[in-house]
Structures
1.
Amino acid sequence: MVTVNIGALLEQGLTLHRRNDPAGAQARFEQIITADPEHTEALHALGVISAQGGNPAQALDYFDRAIASDPGHVMAHFNRGIALMELRRVDEAIASYERVLEIRPGFDKARTNLRVAMKRAGRSPETARALALASGWTAAACQQHGVKLLDAGKAEEALAFFDLALTKSADMAEAHCCRGIALKALGQPVLAIAAYMQAIGLQPELAQAHYNLGMVLQAEGRHREALAAYDRAIEVHPAYAKAYNNRGNLLLELGRHEEALAGYDQALDFDPRFAVAWSNRGVVLQAMNRLPEALASYDRAAELDPDYAENRWNRAVCLLLSGDFSRGWTEYEWRWRNPKLRLYGGKQPLQESRLTADTDLRGRTVLLYAEQGLGDTLQFCRYVPLVAARGARVLLQVQAALLPLLRDLEGVVAVFSGDDPLPAFELQCPLLSLPAVFATNPDTVPSPGRYIHPPPLKLQAWRQRLGPARGRRIGLVWSGSPKHRGDSRRSITLADLLPLLELDAEFFSLQKELRPADQTTLNQTPALRYFGDELHDFSDTAALCELMDHVVSVDTSVAHLAGALDKPVSILLPFAPDWRWMLERGDTPWYPRTRLCRQRQAGDWRSVIEILRTELQRG
């Protein structure tokens, strides 16, 4: 008799599923339930695979069996609700989500799904009346009306009409595909994927379903499956310019730049007036540091669609990166119309009271405010004294974490956080518009040296905390916020910096947050002192920075903080850097004592750190 190692099979199945091999995973889980028909985790996993494969009825059976084996299995109840929603058994789905919240009250995603299901069950009176009037329509008419509602941004109402169409003609592939679009708009990616899979099962040659499936899979981080979906869309419809474009976006996201460029070129072969593809072509060329070609692509996109805000933003960044500040700052104002950025909490600055280069500021109260990240605020608050010097009474609104540090900034009357009530003011300007107001170019960047000072009491406390220096002190920062769009390119691991710790110096971590892998490395690195929760806000970080002889940082807010403190800084930059560092040069006009350490090849941090190690060794 052959003994089945259920634990090993389960681990293999879960690993294969994570690696996007559903067939291999399914085989392992089926082996488990052959040996143990009531194995809860294997039944649940088979349900998930069935749901992802577009078979909600089979998924429901597996989830029911998993719950019979373990009535308290939260994820089986949760995924059962998703399958029931896909089967349009809304009342039963509500019961499943309510059971989830009984078991785990803090399960926010279940609460969100419950709200969607309850809204679906109790549609608005207007939608109910519309559905009643449409009860005699053909399936095609219901489908067409749903598309109109979808185009009008009424995804919930549109979904009701697609559902009605499918009650009249369950094998209507287009209605399943449109259901997927509506579900994606409603923030239900799992249900959207299932809807697209049903459409494809009914009509394998429906190119739009493959394309839409690719988009939602890409958004969910399932890159290999998304690429296969785009490839299938192109196979079915060889002139599908949008599919080539989105395939290029995915390859760009994966760092496969040459392939992405080829994809955009193929899209433009089929649709030379495709402004989005021209702009995306510029993005990948910029990522390859081919700036003149990138700018030409952005220019072509702007010719085709002058109001395409994302392209104008891309063009601004390219101009600034190339050192063309005069045109770059003007174009940079398009950032407010780029919906992907959501600057200043998504609020638009008031234009009628906007500060300009010609505004007479004498005796007037001006509000300057942060709009982007902490590093941007630290970099551009240097302009506050310039505004004050023109006779203005300056109010400054910044992120709460910076309040203690910026209260004593030269030229400021008062500093507020974003949640504080503001006094009356006459004029206003976002911080990153000030370079345009002052006509800043690379030769006229205001570089006042030190323009930020740590609070004296904090500095004294940290001096006592560190004790007497035993040698040169070097502060290290190796990662920023994982939410940053370019974090995968700019952040490194603590392990990458270990060669520096061979130098004859004392080493200190200047960052508060640690990722799991870095925590493991830190535990094995006693030579690096880490302070964690002792860094309450940026005034603590500033005081600790002030006590360093040298700071080494990736491109994060701490790099700007050290520069604003006029400390010697080495900033580690990826091959395609942020616009403010421009290209080629090893210095920067923004921080005179800063050295830029650039990758010469994308992803190659080892050589950058080795060169930096040699420079630091020389002193």
Note: The first strand starts at residue 365 and ends at 369.
2.
Amino acid sequence: MTHPFLERLRRGPLLADGAMGTMLHASGARVDQCLDALNLEQPDWVRDIHLAYIRAGAEVIQSNTFGASAPRLAEHGYGGQVREINFRGVKLAREAREISGQAVWLAGTVGPLGRRARRGDELRLDIAEPAFAEQMAALWEAGADLLILETFSDLPELLVALRLAKATTDLPVVAEVTFGNDGVTGDGTLPADVARALAAAGADAAGVNCSLGPARLLDFIAEMHAAEPGMPLSAMPNAGLPYRAGERMIYPTAPHYFAERTPQFLAQGVALVGGCCGTTPAHIAAMRAGLDEAIGQPHRSPAGHEELAPLPMVRVSAPGVAPTGEEAPEPTGLLRKLRAGKFVVSVEVDPPRGFSAAKMLEGAAIARERGADAVNVADSPMARVRMGALALCVLIQQQVGIETILHLTTRDRSLMGLQADLIGAHALGVRNIIALTGDPPSLGDTHESSAVYDVDSIGLAKIISQFNQGLDRSGKPFGDRSAFTIIVASDPTRADMIQEVDRFHRKVSAGAHLTMTQPIFDPALWSRFLQLYEERHGPFPVPVLIGILPLQSHRHASFLHNEVPGITIPEAALARMERAGAEGRKEGVRMAQELLLELMELPHVQGVYLMPSFGRYEVACEVLDVVKDRAVQ
């Protein structure tokens, strides 16, 4: 089960970002300030720097956590906030990715531990091992896609960090050293020996950062490539040797020089290239141009946001059937598949927080390639402002070519607004609607927003059903019938199962065609829900798409269980994730696959609704491999 980042790295080189510290000082940080603590104290600075690098063309952004280990934080009085600072560091990078909408990778950065973890020249393992493990676990839990161990001048310390990274997480690890002008690390190791040692220790990529300018660093990379030609390499040089001008450190190397050197790095086996101290978004934009030219790709403009390609006009057939006893409009493709007995698959995509939907379109394309029948698009989940779900549905259907399921909440829309949006969705060809009440605004980040709730999800299902009969909410005829597939939610994990069953019965009585459940981690929950429904209301009336959420780690599972409304994880599943340790991602996929196979044997389960964590669509879609295997058998 190869990690998605490594699969991407094998397909071609990636561009990383540049200096974080340089940009934070330019934003106003003091020279003696704890830069990692700015994740808490100046989050806008950090997020804006990430955004600037993404807009310059970076495909890998590194969290502001280089010195966020317990020994380094203790030097500034933050030793007790390791998890909080690291967690926030990844969260800010993820927020920048969501705002940009770009398909970038989030790297959790880890640096050397400093003097507090040493006795003279000797590394104290009793301090180093728990410090590395604590920081890496926090980065992993927060949703980092990979770890970058950077600026290690002592190879033995880097090997300890690499060992702990492999033991603590299942993330790919890029291990980087820094050399002096004499061409050796601080402990006297040559580049070729560094490459051999890191390859033997299991690094997924090895490289050099900081050190000197691009020319000298290229020499070191060439020696490493000659020693380990099969090892992917990373190169992130400083912008030359700095000099002091008053209170400022000036780095002399211009962006165009970085662009000129980029093809030379690629020729020496570099798969991940970026910048270190002194580099800025201007350097990364120049490297973007150099990299694109080297690999023969059209240059992507480093504008404030990337413009989407013009959308083709889509002819949507008119519903065109009067409600006078004539034949009803043709149902959606999703409903036709269900009625034909097909096992259907949907994958959820959250809209971006910004103006570009590139990351979400990529996720939808991955889902389509892996066999999904539809893509769910959430409607500002957790009451946080995002791109309108209908807009993203249209982009996905037109640019990816897969059917969508629009989440429509009554939280933000009056009766007039709900009906207007339904008419617009139908005209645009978005005709699978899941009727939801929506999370209250108090849960999100716009507390001054007012909820509407003219109707709840049951009332919305009734409105859509009336549209399908050719009538608006007040009973006035449209002249045509709509062809919506009406979907409602169900939650078999609720503590008050009778209340949930009775409410679900009201939803399906309002005209629902199928239901999609909250994430389930125990098949017995669905069996109890089904049994109770049939005891109280008779035969179960609709097909079911079971919600499956692959877990990433024990901490991820614990967070979902304790802090996310609507998710309940059994103790047995929590214990299994805890035993998995660093193999959490693989174990989470295995558990989801086992669960899916069990659920497929239960009555009325006719599909799966996959919910990726941290935007990891590739990981979620791995669950579908068991469906394909079963189809082959």
Note: The chain has two domains: 14-294, 341-545+607-616.
